[in-house]
Amino acid sequence: MSGGGRVQGLSRSCILLIVIAGMERFAFKGVASNLVTYLTDVVQMSNSSAAKTVNSWCGFTSMLPLLVAPLADSFWDRYSTILTSSFVYVLGLGAVASTATIWTWSPPSNKSSPAFLFWSLCLISLGQGAYNPSLQAFGADQLDHDEELPSSKDDKNSNKKSLFFQWWYFGVCSGSLLGLILMSYIQDTFGWVLGFAIPMFAMITSVAIFTCGNRIYAYKPDKSIDSKPFQNILQVIKVTASKLVNGRIRINLPDDKSDVGELELQEKPLCDQKFGSNGGFDGNLRNKTHLLENAKIVLRLLPIWAMLLMFAVIFQQPATFFTKQGMTMKRNIGRNFKIPPATLQSAITLSIILMMPLYDKVLIPITQIVTRNQKGITVMQRMGVGMFLSIIAMIIAAVVETKRLEINRKTSSLESETVELSIFWLLPQYVLLGISDIFTVVGMQEFFYNEVPVRMRTMGFALYTSVFGLGSFLSALMISVIEAFTSSGGRQSWFSDDMREDGLDKYYWLLALASTLSLLFYAIFCKFYTTRIELENGNRK
């Protein structure tokens, strides 16, 4: 493998790609974190419309990898995908920056201008949809054991994989933190033109750095018979269905140990004299049977995937309603400085950065002693703990919002929406969400990476991001349904533009209840879930 230097057990190429991932997060968060303020203050959208727009855009952005990743796995190499998608990404960032420049001189019209902004955001989504999963999969390819499988019995390899995901998330959070703090301040203080231009130039710089690392990257050769997994899975489903309809096929899974393990299938394709190498159905029946089994493995993930959606819904709140809450609270530090509400989102990433070392140095050793497990807690237990903490965060958010509304009612004669309640009362919910991130988000990355077939790693990361994608759409749908229901009969909507009369506290309680139900079903599904390691070990016995 290329790249000789090592830091914390990772190669130079891994470290470089982690830095590049952090720069991409800086660019994205520089646009996304304060977008709801841009939509309400510049585009003149209502609070609910802006929140639904941000949620829908984030959902579209996170769902696109599900469409792009199979193509990247089947038809393109990851390096070329990263370069091509980064060009689209930069184009989208430039288009968003141009809207701010134009609207500085001419206020946006009712139809055409918001439409141009929407299509600019879609360009960012399209670029990121291919860029992020490909970059992370390319980073995982840099590990010393290129064909490392979850069934590997080497604890060092497993620990190294966990180390990679933790440092990757550390880099991503560091970039996000800088984007949240710096860009929110610049946008609120110096304007949106500079606030959107800086993320564009940051992304251009990251692409330049990426191309400079060509000599130290490890490029995985695409020699296995499973080199086009998505295309082959569709082909084998089609051919098998045809044969079954005609009654001309009977599939018996081989019992031979060498035919069961996916590692052996990758390293030694069954294309010898016995089966031929022409790629025909009869010659590769056993190989295509494995591909069909891989498709079944992806379907097995759906119950767990679905139960994580409410966790993703909760994570839409900091960029939308948490930010709008902060705008109505006391934000002064000293006489002249006011905290931009969006910067409180940095508390999430800051808590991740500060707590991640404690997770490794304190929590894991304690749980290793208690559970007698090498990893301390399993990946699925790790995700469950994070889901529980997110529920506690929403309960705290509901209590704080109730307090804010009580103070508002006592000062209802005042015209200003600002209440004498410090914005720092929102910090506990932000910090708890950050800690839950350490458990659930890192666990999700490792879980989906482990549970998908080897040659569909990009698809694995796409499954992880799609949780937050569909969660964003689900959040927007919930807002629409709740708004329609609560505003019927002339009543005040829970998402009223008048923050003195909203019902966000009820909304937060509803999210806490729905997340509790999701956690209960998640625990039930985990009890009956069989991992790939257990399946492969069972087949070998």
What does this structure look like?
The structure is a single chain. By secondary structure, this protein is an all-alpha fold. Mean pLDDT is 76; it is low at 1-7, 144-154, 222-227 and 248-283. It is globular. It contains 20 helices and four strands. The strands form two sheets. A two-stranded antiparallel ribbon has the order 1-2. Strands 3-4 form a two-stranded antiparallel sheet. The chain has helices at residues 12-32, 35-41, 47-74, 78-105, 112-141, 155-189, 192-212, 229-246, 257-260, 262-267, 285-300, 302-307, 309-314, 321-327, 346-371, 379-410, 427-451, 457-486, 504-528, 532-540, and strands at residues 6-7, 10-11, 332-333, 337-338. The two termini are 34 Å apart. The longest helix is centred in the first third of the chain and has 35 residues, at 155-189. It folds into two domains: 9-217, MFS general substrate transporter like domains (Growth Hormone, Chain: A, Up-down Bundle); 293-540, Up-down Bundle (Growth Hormone, Chain: A). It is found in: Membrane. InterPro entries: MFS_trans_sf, POT_fam. One of its GO terms (molecular function) is transmembrane transporter activity. It is a multi-pass membrane protein. Residues 1-25 form the signal peptide.
Descriptive keywords:
single chain; 541 residues; mainly alpha; Growth Hormone, Chain: A; 2 domains; two-stranded antiparallel ribbon; two-stranded antiparallel sheet; 70% helix
